[in-house]
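Hey,
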Amino acid sequence: FQGCKLTGSIPTLPTNLIVGDEMFNSCSKLTGNVPELPSGIVSTEYMFSYALGLSGISPVKPTGLSNSDCTDTFASTQITNDGSWPDTAW
């Protein structure tokens, strides 16, 4: 959905999602909170970067997701850090 013009909030993500890299990158019309991430996800690099309408607190980082696999997940968004993600996720 990178760069899409979807409007509204992000629905619940599929439980079998493994790689979310750039999935909602630059989707400027999405609003609201980011839903819980699937427990089996292994990479979220740039997943929500530049999704300017998103807000709220970041979802809990899944235990299998390493810090190096979530670089700039929330870069240039208004998501706030709840302490469960490294600073590089922003």
